[in-house]
Design a protein that fits this description.
mainly alpha; MetI-like fold; about 80% helix; globular
Length: about 250
């Protein structure tokens, strides 16, 4: 008996969702104009075109990208410091947890007052990714093979030699797991920052479309933001797969 291709099986769920969405949008939600059908959203996307979306996408991607880079860099540095100096971890890990638990919508106005331009959005994007990447990096750095660490020490190497020769390589799969989660989180942090005050970006475009009651455009902007987040997640996963070919993969 022939087996259907894997991509075909994976497409069944999204296709069924789109068909159900289209049917509900044209029947149950047709009077309320709150949930437009996918065909209406796509039509609005085509009508708006790149002239409308590209300037906003470029702004949001810049803010999210800078936040992703700064937040992940801080997380990796903190993870290395925590592994090398455990005493510091007891004090600073709690601060990292507090930053993760702080509602972004609550600290956003404060950052908007303190910083001008895109700085507040970049900071919000960075705060959104620090803790998840920190946890992934810590788990990876501490999962190093004990025998390999003992071998480095037997040849006279200290903790920094263990870090450079064993721990960093071992930490890559867990680190990239955190980086994959951080990509959509940075996008969300940047968009929330734009909601709180900005001149351009997907968040600003969404607010304007909501205020003008352009329902299809609002949904289109949301879908574009979702697609960008998914693309960032997939790109990070691809890079991680290429850089860690030895890492075990989840069975499909």
């Amino acid at each position: 008996m022939s087996v259907a291709p894997r991509w075909l099986l994976g497409a069944v769920g999204p296709v069924a969702l789109l068909v159900a969405w289209e049917a509900l949008g044209r029947t149950v939600f047709a009077d309320g104009h709150v949930v437009p059908p996918p065909t209406a959203i796509v039509s609005q996307l085509v009508t708006d075109g790149l002239g409308f979306y590209w300037p906003n996408i470029k702004t949001t991607l810049r803010e999210a990208g800078l936040g992703w880079l700064w937040g992940n860099a801080i997380a990796v540095v903190l993870a290395v410091v925590f592994v090398q100096i455990p005493l510091i971890e007891r004090a600073l890990l709690q601060l990292a947890l507090v930053s993760y638990c702080l509602p972004v919508i609550a600290i956003g106005p404060v950052l908007a007052v303190l910083f001008s331009g895109d700085t507040s959005k970049v900071i919000l994007a960075a705060i959104s990714v620090i803790f998840t990447t920190l946890v992934g990096a810590l788990v990876g750095l501490r999962s190093a093979d004990r025998t390999s660490l003992d071998l480095i020490r037997a040849y006279g190497g200290g903790s920094w030699a263990q870090l450079w020769r064993v721990r960093l390589r071992t930490s890559l799969p867990s680190l990239f797991a955190g980086l994959r989660i951080a990509a959509p989180a940075a996008m969300l942090g940047a968009i929330i920052g734009e909601y709180l005050g900005a001149e351009s970006g997907l968040g600003v475009a969404m607010i304007n479309s909501q205020q003008s009651l352009a329902v299809e455009r609002t949904w289109g902007i949301a879908l574009v933001a979702t697609a960008l987040s998914g693309a960032a997640y997939g790109l990070t996963a691809l890079v991680g797969r290429l850089l860690t070919p030895w890492a075990p993969r989840v069975a499909r």
